[in-house]
Structures are given as C-alpha cells and as structure tokens.
Design brief:
About 35% of the residues lie in helices and about 5% in strands. It is mostly helical and about 550 residues long. The strands form 5 sheets. It has a two-stranded antiparallel ribbon. α8 (about 215-230) runs antiparallel to α9 (about 245-260) and α9 (about 245-260) runs parallel beside α15. The relative contact order is 0.13.
Length: about 550
C-alpha cells in the first residue's frame, strides 16, 4: 500500500511490498463498514501471533480489492504502463474495463491511455497492459489469500497457542479467504479461460512452475471450494458489512451455474435456480430506491446487498474503483457526481441507450444519463462528447448531502461497489427458468422481473410485463438496464452468443462505426506473453 497519494496520472512506487503493510480492523456494528484503515508498523510474523493479528491480516486480504499497491505475484510485475497510472492498478478498474469497455455499455475517450486502444474495437493483442494487469492483480490477490489460508491452518493456529472461540473465529476467516480466492479464480476463468493454478500448497517463486488448468477443471475446483466452505462461513446477513457470508458463496455459485455451458459445455440451470432459492429464502429484499444503490451511503443497503467492495474517501484512496466510476463519465458536472470534476472519459453507445424507451429517466429511473452537451450517437469513438454519460455513481448521500468520509479535495469516492446483490439473483432465476432449469416456476420468474421493474418505475406497475413478453432476449435487455456499469455486460453477451458474432452490433464493435462481427478468439483474453515465457507449463489461448 502507498504511504503517499498521487494524482491520477502521477508516478508511484508501485513495487513497494503490500505484504509489509497490515490493515487494522475495527469491530463495527451491523450497518457499519469493515474498516480498512492502514497501519504500517507490523510485520507478518507479528500479525499472525495473536487473534487480533489474524483479523488485521484478513482485512489486508479484503483491502486488496479496494486498494492499490504492489501487484507482483513473485513471477512477474504489473506492466510498466500501469505503474505510470496508479489508478489503473486497482482490481475493480482493471476488471471493469475488460467487462464494460469491450461492449455497448462503455467507451473511454483517451486512446493514448495505456491499454485502451483496441478494447472497444475488440481488436486487442496479447500485449495490452490492462489485460495483463488484471491477470497479475488477480494472482496477487490469490497470493494474499493463499498466505492467509496457509497461516490459518489448524496446525499453525495450535502452534501459536490460539484455542477456543478465537481459533473458531480464525477458521471462519480462513473460509472467507478461500471464498475470496475462489472469486478471483472465477474472474480468471471467465476472462482468460485456462490460467495457471496456485493454491496454499504451492509457493510462488518455488522450484516448480504452476501448472495450467483447463477451464472446465477450474470450474469444478471453484464449485468444490464454495461447497466445501459453505457451512464454515457466517450465516447470511450475520457477518460484518463488507465480509463474505454463506449467501456470497451461493451468489457466486448461481452466477457460475448460469454461465456453466460457456465454461464447461454443459448447462447447469437447475443448479442456478437451487442457489437462487437459497438466497431469496435468506431474508434479502429489494432496496426500495434504485438510484440509492450506487451512492455514497449505499453501505446502508443491507436489505439488498450480499457483498460489496468497500470504498472510503479517506482510508481507501485510489484512482480506480468507484472513484473511476464517479469521475470517469464525460462532462458530468461536479455538483452532480459529488466530486471535484470529471475526467472526460466514459460514454455509452447509442445502442445501449436505446434499451430504454425513455432516456430521460422520468419513467424508468434506471436511465441515469447525462445528456447536456453530449451527442446520442457515437460518431467518433475517441471524442468525449460522442455518447451520453452516466450519472449512476454519485458521491452523495440519499439526502443529497456530502459523502460521509469525503476527502477535502473531493478526489475520492465513498461509494461501495456491489459484487453481489438480490437484483442479480432475480435475473439469474428468471433466465435459468426460461432456459429449462427445474426447481423454479415461470410465475415466480415473472414476479421477480416485475418487482425489479416496479422499483425502477418508482413504485408504479406501468412498466410491468406479461408472461408472453418474458423471453431470454428480454432478460438480456433487462440485465442491461438493471446491472449496467456493474461489470456484467461482456459475460452476458458471450452467454447469448452476441459478443463476437453479428447477432448484435454496436457502435465501433470490430472498429467499424456501424459495428461488425469479430473472430471468436476474442471471447477470451490472452495470457500475458511474459508469463508464457517464464512458465513452460503454459499454452496461449487459441488465436493469439
């Protein structure tokens, strides 16, 4: 972690070892955030000596999702282009860019920024700093998880003289670390397909190179991990906000099962419904105001949120994460975004905007577009006024006041990023039922969709649909309206066979104004050439 903060394009010492930093955690009430404030006066040996130290180390594992710092895995460093832009080393910004900038939901204005050119055009090569950066960032976070899992083994707990309730708590922390590792492996499976495999039993930098695992086998591994830890995790809604519980494992399983045919060749829609049912029976409800899902006090949304990445304007300062989603949209006024100004970057294609019958947001409140001075049509890809901008992530509270922990300069965001929420669960359930899964019903699927639409229409049923309108294509469009800018779109379009094909075209897909199909190889991103050179066990994805 950094001791000093730098402006968006400032150079930082990105090789500083995050493993030397420990994150102190304060036990808070149920509606408070997991405190990720850094302290740099403890070594790893000291941290693991006490129960409190284990919790500090757990906070570091979580903190890696929201903080920038050393992203070396012990094999390779993050690309030098990313080092020059500290915000681009943040996990969420890297992942978000690959999930959204490659689709109809987003384009970035500055083609000179490292790794940007070629993403929206679906014409990237294996030498791309964002693609390579996410790979190394995910493995860095897996390395943190592996170390915690290793240090929290029953043998190590016993050696340190920790017993009773303290030991039981540490075992729960270990289950959470296994969940976070499983989540990162899901990211690698979804993005790269066939990554190397490293667990707590394998030391990075040891004499043996990690072996490559095939996508289908990685799916089985993640599935088995999540099922193995299910009962070791806290019951739903009983953990501290920002920490994984049983429902988080169910949510990841349901998401994986929805995409199982892509990952393994075999559909698992019945399994998706099974885990959706577990979530809907655990006491979650839709938050009553859609526009409060992505604002500065959204940590209060424990009714809908299952797990979020916590951001804080004073203690998790970096130029990625929701700071990127607050500042990034082009020309959104500071008083709207709750920041000190925009970066002139993110815009929508007209194809996405057209998913909404009323772009003003007066009917469907999910249409949160900034239109003043912006053109609907993206006639030019790298012109900041071509395409509407997003006002979805606003660093203000539901009362319109300033963010609770706003920094004086208004540089950084307090907005948490929902990794899993009930709205997605409803959409998974409905799609899985429509695709032939058992254990659910069309009537319940329709009810879930209309609950989302009633909320979107501010309590009115005017937007509700009939059973005849409930189709898989409708669900894809509804996922766009409900989940945009939450890092789903690429995965959704691939599941529908619309990402690389001509079944759905958007502005500048394939580098053509009207859009065109591209090679199927772009359904996966390439493995970094530096890792291929360093590890003889790895084979590049087809076509790169």
């Amino acid at each position: 972690m950094m001791n000093t903060l730098h402006k968006k394009y400032g150079r930082v010492n990105f090789l500083r070892m995050i493993s030397l930093a420990c994150l102190a955690i304060t036990v808070l009430g149920a509606c408070k955030k997991l405190d990720l404030s850094p302290t740099n006066d403890l070594t790893a040996d000291k941290v693991y000596a006490t129960p409190a130290g284990y919790k500090q180390a757990l906070a570091k594992v979580y903190g890696a999702f929201a903080l920038t710092g050393n992203a070396t895995t012990g094999q390779q460093d993050i690309p030098v282009e990313i080092i020059k832009d500290e915000g681009n080393s943040d996990f969420l910004r890297l992942y978000w860019n690959l999930q959204e900038l490659t689709t109809d939901e987003a384009a970035w204005s500055w083609q000179s920024d490292a790794g940007i050119q070629g993403l929206h055009e679906l014409s990237w090569s294996s030498i791309n700093s964002i693609i390579n950066g996410l790979y190394y960032r995910s493995f860095f976070q897996i390395t943190l998880c592996n170390d915690f899992i290793r240090q929290s083994s029953d043998d190590n707990i016993a050696k340190r003289g920790i017993t009773g309730t303290d030991a039981d708590d540490i075992r729960k922390y270990r289950a959470e670390s296994r969940f976070l590792r499983a989540y990162q492996y899901w990211v690698l499976m979804d993005i790269y397909g066939n990554p190397p495999m490293v667990t707590e039993a394998i030391e990075i930098g040891g004499k043996d190179f990690p072996k490559q695992i095939q996508r289908k086998d990685l799916f089985t591994y993640i599935e088995s991990e999540l099922k193995a830890i299910e009962n070791d995790l806290a019951a739903p809604k009983t953990n501290e906000y920002g920490r994984a519980d049983r429902a988080a494992a169910w949510a990841l399983l349901s998401r994986m099962y929805l995409n199982a045919e892509v990952y393994t060749g075999s559909p698992k829609y019945t399994e998706a419904i099974t885990y959706c049912n577990k979530i809907t029976q655990a006491g979650y409800t839709l938050h009553n105001n859609y526009r409060e899902l992505t604002i500065a006090d959204n940590y209060l949304n424990t009714d809908e949120f299952i797990l979020a990445i916590n951001y804080d304007g004073t203690s998790t300062q970096n130029y990625g994460g929701t700071t990127y989603l607050m500042h990034g949209p082009a020309h959104v006024p500071a008083e709207v975004s709750g920041s000190n100004g925009d970066w002139g970057g993110l815009r929508f294609t007209e194809n996405f905007v057209n998913l909404f019958a009323d772009e003003t947001g007066n009917t469907d409140s999910r249409a949160q577009f900034y239109r003043t001075g912006q053109n609907l049509e993206m006639t030019e890809l790298y012109v900041s006024t071509d395409g509407y901008s997003s006002t979805k992530f606003r660093n203000k509270t539901r009362s319109g006041g300033p963010a609770p922990h706003q920094d004086a300069a208004k540089d950084f965001s307090d907005i948490d990023f929902p990794l899993f929420r009930l709205g997605e669960t409803y959409l998974i359930y409905a799609e899985a039922v429509l695709r032939g899964g058992s254990g659910g019903s069309l009537s319940t699927a329709l009810d879930y969709i209309n609950k989302l639409r009633t909320r979107a229409y501010n309590g009115s049923t005017a937007g509700n649909i009939s059973s005849t309108a409930l189709t898989t294509d409708f669900i894809l469009d509804e996922r766009g309206r409900e989940l945009y800018y939450e890092a789903f779109r690429r995965t959704d379009l691939i599941r529908y066979n619309k990402f690389t094909t001509n079944a759905y075209l958007w502005a500048w897909k394939g580098g053509v104004r009207a859009g065109t199909s591209v090679a199927a190889k772009f359904n996966l991103f390439p493995l970094p050439p530096t890792d291929l050179s360093a590890n003889p066990n790895l084979t590049q994805n087809t076509g790169y």
